[in-house]
Specification:
Blueprint (H helix, E strand, L loop, with lengths): L28 E6 L4 E6 L11 E6 L1 E3 L3 E3 L6 E9 L2 E7 L9 E4 L2 E8 L5 E5 L25 H4 L7 E4 L11 H5 L3 E6 L22 E5 L1 H9 L2 E5 L1 H9 L2 E2 L2 E2 L2 E5 L14 E5 L6 H10 L1 H13 L10 E4 L1
Parallel strand pairs: 1-19, 3-12, 3-14, 4-11, 14-18
Antiparallel strand pairs: 1-2, 5-6, 6-7, 7-10, 8-9, 9-10, 12-13, 13-17, 15-16, 18-19
């Protein structure tokens, strides 16, 4: 166990950061980590079913990514629209921020946006001179480590095949590997957690316990709660599902249907209450996501697996390969 930020670091060659999705969904590599034996296997994602047991239940996040990225009409300012607060009032992130001080104006689709307020986190509250849906005509908000503009292919590939509930600003990337055919062969259910930008905020304190997560909205249906409570093993597909399930209320040990928000921050030595196995992509050094997976796997074992992934030339991050931890 460690609460030092520097203990969640690793070296990653830049060329291993996946810039494009694989040619076909389901073509990714799968690293299998066995916690009991500390063993590592190198497989293909299409083999996932062979590592599951009778009674296992996959739990996936059916959030849908919003096309929240827009540019001003002159192309000078990039916006990430986070939330519509009122018909003519939005919360957003802007780049470069120095050009968007209070009172600054730009146009999108010939509608004027004026900065009314800057939050302590640097977000802008902008006022429009007439109401429009700024998601209409937007593009996928690809993470900054994908060093290119989003394209038509990203509109479908940076979205799971089971995306249903609009509200996310980033994809639940462990779900991107699934085709409908693969999913239909495995017992599964869905929960919803709308991934927000706070998930990816850097941890700035060397003592990770001082970091605070931003809240994200989640919901668990009565059907999902019942199936999860009666499952033999609960296999969380992604850290977003792990966070939703571990934050959820239980009564007499059973998960209950609910809607709410969570700012849960999971790091070692957190003891998981609900999930028994985890499918996840490879995460950034020093990130809260790496800390969550470290809590589930064991930090030293996980970092050893990451070192092996680098040696074996796995593809990292959102469009990269994945690991199954059992």
């Amino acid at each position: 166990m460690s609460t030092r930020l520097s203990d969640y670091d690793y070296e990653l060659p830049r060329e291993l950061i996946a810039q494009q999705p694989p040619e076909h969904r389901g073509d990714s590599r799968l690293m299998v980590l066995r916690r009991d034996s500390q063993g590592i296997e190198h497989r293909q994602f299409a083999e996932l079913k062979t590592f599951l047991q009778h009674g296992d239940l996959l739990v996936l996040n059916d959030t849908q990514v919003l096309p929240a990225r827009r540019f001003s009409d002159d192309g000078a300012i990039e916006f990430l629209f986070l939330e519509r607060l009122a018909p003519c009032r939005w919360k957003c992130l802007v780049s470069p921020g120095r050009k968007m001080r209070i009172g600054a104006t730009v146009k999108i689709d010939n509608v004027t946006l004026c900065v009314d307020k800057i939050t302590p986190d640097g977000e802008r509250i902008v006022v429009l001179n007439k109401p429009i849906d700024l998601y209409s005509g937007g593009s996928m908000p690809l993470p900054p480590y994908i060093r290119r503009n989003s394209n038509i292919e990203d509109a479908t590939r940076y979205q799971t095949v089971f995306a249903h509930a609009p509200g996310a600003l980033a994809a639940p990337t462990a779900g991107l590997h699934f085709t409908s055919e693969i999913l239909n062969e495995i017992p599964h259910t869905f929960v919803t957690l709308h991934v927000a930008t706070g998930t990816f905020l850097p941890v700035r304190s060397e003592n990770v316990t001082e970091h605070r997560m931003h809240a994200e909205r989640f919901s668990i249906s009565p059907s999902a709660a019942s199936r999860i409570s009666s499952a033999g093993r609960t296999v969380a597909v992604g850290t977003t599902v792990a966070r939703a399930l571990e934050a959820a209320e239980r009564i007499d040990g059973n998960l209950v249907a609910q809607e709410g928000s969570t700012d849960i921050f999971i790091y070692p030595p957190y003891q998981f209450r609900i999930i028994d196995a985890l499918l996840t992509n490879f995460h950034l050094p020093r990130s809260t996501l790496l800390m969550l997976v470290s809590a589930f796997t064991g930090r030293e074992f996980l970092l050893r697996a990451y070192q092996e992934a680098v040696r074996e030339r796995y593809r990292f991050y959102s469009y990269g390969d994945c690991m199954l931890i059992v």
